[in-house]
Write a structure and sequence with these properties.
Number of helices of chain C: 12
Order of helices and strands of chain B: EEHEHE
Distance between the termini of chain B: 48 Å
Distance between the termini of chain C: 23 Å
Radius of gyration of chain B: 19 Å
Radius of gyration of chain C: 21 Å
Helix content of chain B: 25-40%
Shape of chain C: globular
Largest sheet of chain C: 4 strands, mixed
Oligomer: heterotrimer
Number of strands of chain B: 4
Structural class of chain B: alpha/beta
Chains: A alpha+beta, B alpha/beta, C alpha+beta
Largest sheet of chain B: 3 strands, parallel
Largest interface: A-B, 51 and 42 residues
Number of helices of chain B: 2
Amino acid sequence: MVYFEGQGIPTANVATTEFLGAAHAQCSALGMPQYEPILVPHPIQPKLPEEVRALADQVIEQIVAKLLKQKVQQAA
Amino acid sequence: MGEVFLDPTDKVDREEIAFAPRLDTLAEKTIGLLDINKAKGSFFLDRLEEVLRERYGVKEVLRRKKTSPGRLVHEPVKVELLQQCDAVIEALSD
Amino acid sequence: MPDPIPLRSQQIEAQEDDPFELFFSRGVTDGLPVVPPTKERVERMLATVDRDPQGVLGTIGPNYGRATVEKVAINAVMAGCHLSYFPVVLAAAEALSDEKFNAHALNVTTFSATPLTIINGPIRTEIGVNCEHNALGHGFRANATIGRTLRLLIMNIGGAKPQQITKATMGHPAQFTFCVGENEEESPWEPLHVEKGFRPDQSTVTVFGGHSPFQINDHASRTAEQLALSIGWTMASIWNHKNFPLFSDTVLIVCPEHAKTFAQDGWSKNDLRQFLFERIRRPLRELRPGVNGGEGVGVSMIPLRDQSTEPPTDDTLYPKFPEPESILIIVAGGTAGRFSAAVPGLARGDFGSRITTREIRR
């Protein structure tokens, strides 16, 4: 996602809570230490398909806010 | 002065990258959905796609997949998303 | 007097009395003390090869740091490598940083992946690589330090520190070091590098993205078929007893006594891998999620080579191994005792990591 941001394309990245540290470390290494993923509860693998879909409903507004202009002042 | 040693790490000098300008709206836009290719992530992206179209008026959704969660995005996919999308959402790191 | 070797790495000045503590505090060790990489030690290591110290062997994900000859030398010194090991270390580092091997995949998975380095050819006896008793274990500097260098490169060049980018759930001791020589002298078969098209007198390293080894006891089988079934059905629990087929490669390390049993019945390495592919199979009814555990068919992501166009029934047999070529076979270990070993792999192909071989340049 860091690549796309650098090319002028706004992005949002979704990770589970367990991977917050890994996401920070990777984004820092690639040049965007301030990049924040949107988090969903861990784990995903044991969940049923409808449970995973429900997670999308829970965070869609956060995802959209990450892409739109008026939210750019908030912590990324 | 103490003894001198050599650094075993690679300090890659990367310039800090600024955030891209954000969009005014998602309506009529093309949104890339990049699946990192972990099992079950597709269900998440399926629902995102539905809501983006129905609720936010997105004109087109480009669904693409990484070859593997353990690789960078394949170059042709990267170029395609770059050239065709107004925004990109990547999911789901698990 | 030879010209000084131009080095570009940042210099670290030790303020403390104890340089060992310095490197612990910088977070560049595997948890064990490292040999402090003084300029002199690194220069001596670099002087053993005729390579540009700034030559880039490749990059190592997930941070895609550059594995230069100089950086590899620094990490080899830290690992405790003897000077004579450096050509082997360079070849292994080249394989590790090859995009085909894709170290990135090993370093961002919960699987606890680590590179297994297999050494073939005359270099084994020249530098003292252990291929015999305790082949996978402790006690031999070449095995211990060559394998350790790869782990240090993964951490220091790849950026894969445990609990940060790397989220291996369990980890295992082979992540410290995992390096073995094939016991070509006690093997009835072609060694691995000859299988891959090299001459017997060439020396190579092969790097495999795998897991901790587990041992397979068989002190009773007297025929090749009996032994293959015994080994194969023990390997059937790799990843999970219901993961059929694997979406990974597997290394089978056959001990010399077992290799003799196969050879006595005229079996080659290919005969053994073909047999395992064809005979280690279970019907779908035993593999459905919920039958003896929640895992099962549906987790695997690679199609079967012989996938039928008919929809599967409860009687459809699924192989454990996706294809015979997914089983890499070497002979190693001592001539006394009948314990072979299997090394499960990370995902294969584009999805994961590909077994990568490099010739060792002198």
